[in-house]
Specification:
Layout: E1 5-10, E2 13-23, E3 26-29, H1 37-51, E4 58-62, H2 67-77, E5 81-84, E6 96-101, E7 108-113, H3 115-121, E8 125-133, H4 137-148, E9 152-162, E10 172-177, E11 179-181
Parallel strand pairs: 4-5, 4-8, 8-9, 9-10
Antiparallel strand pairs: 1-2, 2-3, 3-11, 6-7
């Protein structure tokens, strides 16, 4: 069986994203920007322009695939960034946490905000950043932690949204990825 792909373009950079079945009859396009400096730099430049009019103090992302995007965007916008970790380490001190569900693994995940980063985001205007916003679970987990930390989320951004486009009208995104549903496998 030949591998299936979905073609995308961001700022003139084209990629073929492999399709992955996440449950019987449901496929999504997988964006993995780790190591893809050309795509990361192009997406960061576009997102920096899209966010230029927002008074952002700190960028916040979740570990791990969107870290290069956060780093590149923070360099362009000259802003600090915070990475919410997926496991607690002793050096993190009194970390805040929330729980989320990953669409790619189907497993619950925890997100942790390091004690030192709590001080960085407290009272600040935050832009939450992700590579792809699909179900909104990670986004909700990041919002919850920012609320606990006393931060003000003023923007939510991603390279792509995915799934029900209508629910993502407030997200600053560079594009949208469909979800492929095989009606026969779905029992319809």
């Amino acid at each position: 069986m030949a591998e299936e792909f979905y073609a995308v373009e961001v700022a003139g950079i084209q990629r073929k994203l492999p399709l992955m079945e996440i449950k019987p009859g449901v496929k999504i396009a997988i964006l993995n920007i780790l190591g893809d400096y050309e795509f990361v730099n192009a997406a960061s430049a576009e997102l920096a322009q899209a966010l230029a009019d927002k008074p952002i103090d700190v960028l916040v992302t979740a570990e791990a695939k969107s870290i290069p995007l956060a780093h590149a965007l923070s360099t362009l916008m000259e802003l600090p960034y915070v990475v919410l970790r997926k496991s607690h380490k002793p050096y993190m001190g009194e970390a805040l946490q929330s729980e989320t569900l990953s669409i790619t693994t189907g497993e619950p995940q925890r997100l942790f905000l390091d004690e030192k980063d709590r001080r960085l985001v407290a009272g600040k205007r935050i832009a939450i950043l992700d590579d792809v916003i699909s179900t909104g679970s990670t986004l909700q987990g990041m919002r919850l932690i920012m609320d606990k930390a006393g931060a003000d989320v003023i923007a939510e951004t991603a390279i792509f949204t995915e799934g029900d486009r209508a629910q993502w009208h407030d997200i600053v995104a560079l594009g949208h990825l469909p979800v492929w549903v095989d009606e026969q496998a779905d029992g319809a």
